[in-house]
Amino acid sequence: MARICQVTGKTPLKGNKVSFSNKKSIRRFMPNLQKKRFFLVEEDKWIVLKLTTDAMRTINKQGLFNVVKRLRAEGQKI
Predict the structure, then answer these.
(1) Confidence band (pLDDT; 50, 70, 90) for 78?
(2) What whole-number distance in Å separates Cα of residue 17 and Cα of residue 22?
(3) pLDDT above 90 (res 2)
(4) Label partner for 15 (CA 20 to 30 A): which of 22, 35, 41, 69?
(5) DSSP state of 78
(6) 16: Cβ–Cβ under 8 A, 6 or more apart, which residues?
(7) Residue 3 lies in a domain
(8) Residues 6+ apart with CB under 8 A from 11
(9) How many CB atoms lie within 10 A of CB 12?
(10) pTM above 0.85, yes or no
């Protein structure tokens, strides 16, 4: 599976690893992805989302049902 957050859409970034001698080599900065199970009370079922810790804060602030409703409107199957 791709390393993409389902809620925020964050993907890996590219950058330079800089050594002590100041040599640069390409590296990837991975998003902090977690697989998290949520209980959706309105539909009385469990859902599993692959999201970043930043997206978990978004769900805490906006509510799970609002986030799932927005994702379904964008065309994601949840």
Answers:
(1) confident
(2) 9
(3) no
(4) 35
(5) -
(6) 24, 25, 26, 27
(7) no
(8) 2, 3, 4, 5, 31
(9) 14
(10) no
CA distance linking residue 52 with residue 65, whole number of Å? 18
Any domain includes 58 = yes
> Considering the chain, what is the average pLDDT of its residues?
95
Four-residue CA torsion sign, 47, 7, 63, 52? positive
The residues near 60 (Cβ < 8 Å, ≥ 6 apart) are none
Q: CATH number of the domain at 21, please.
A: 2.30.170.40
Domain that holds residue 20: 13-73
Number of domains in the chain: 1
